[in-house]
Amino acid sequence: MKRPLRGALSTVALLSGLALVASSCGFGGSKSDSNDPNTLTFLAPIYSDGTKSEWDKIISDFEKANPSIKVNLQMESWTDIPNVVRTDLQNESSTPDILNIDAYSTYASDGKLYPANQIVDNSVLSDLQPSFIKNASMNGTQWALPLFASTRTLFYNTDLFTKAGIAAPPKTWAELTDDAKKIQALGGGVSGYGLPLGSEETQAETSLWTFGAGGNWSDGTNITIDTPQNVAGVQAIKALASAGVTQPNPGATNRTPLINTFIQGQLGMIEGLPPVISMIQQKNPGLKYATAPTPTQDGTPVTLGVADHLMAFKKKVDKTAAIKKFLDFFYQGATYASFVKAEHFIPVTTSGAQAMSDDPVVKAFGATLPTAKFYPSNNPKWAAAEGAMKQQLGTVTTGADPATVLKSIQQAAS
């Protein structure tokens, strides 16, 4: 959702899982497990403090219903999982059978993945929302399964708005900057706007600004980074940082700690994702806040849509029968809805949306889906662009030229 969709909300590296033991293979067990068609390895990221317990319960229930199949779970933080995946994919014995991550296109284009119709029943595919099927497809073939959706919306502190004399949330960048200046002037360590351009999820915050200027990261075929619209969006980021209305050192600030700063009442505004609602309830239920559409250059609503994915890797030993049983089990109505609700994201299945119609996250964020733009995750070159963004975009807050930075990222993607 992080993506997030990609939406990693815990930066604690957690190297534990079901039946996981230390070994030269990333998933533990013996090498013979990789040759067992009924033993699955599953690598997943940490979305919240409860992610592991949710997967543990699902796996336990699945194994009780399918005693001949074993699922070994390994979990990593969103900060660590890209490096873990790169290392594990160097050898078949350490490659996971099932992977939960954001981008899939590189693996699909390299011929490493099973098509989606080989790893779930048609009833699962027909339950998925069409826009997310398109986002999980390349050249007419669906290669991944959307897990759940995340969009962004503006969270703002209503107490700080009242103190600063601000009557309504901003709709344009000019209004956002003006409001942030008023909040910054309150003093007391409060910042006007939270701008997370550290390595955790730089591409998400940046996309809100480039999309808000009418930009895209792809023209449908090619990765398009250094377009005039994208440059305008990053120039707006630079201008906001230069105005001194963000937290200190925005180019090195990660999203998760900055969200906690907002929750503690020290930020006027921040772009938030669905789990922020539950985090506020847990950490500071007395916080006075509201949400509003993401401000854009001209006030036209747009937001970032993120869908993380499940995918299955081809092996010499065919494990599709076991994989299909596990994924079909996961996507069945009650199991899927329970997982999505626990992680506080937006369901991507029709049945899940119906089951969660009264959920506060669906109520707050469901309306944002029609205005969402997605990362071009079905382009194999997007992963390189995303990596370069995480390394370089923060430098615009310390003097780097936006056009030069975007040109460098374009070259990395090419």
From TrEMBL:
This is Extracellular solute-binding protein. Residues 1-21 form the signal peptide. Belongs to the bacterial solute-binding protein 1 family. It comes from Nocardia albiluteola. It comes from the Bacteria. It holds the Pfam family SBP_bac_1. Keywords: Signal, Transport. InterPro entries: SBP (IPR006059). The keyword Acyltransferase does not apply. SUPFAM superfamilies: Periplasmic binding protein-like II (SSF53850).
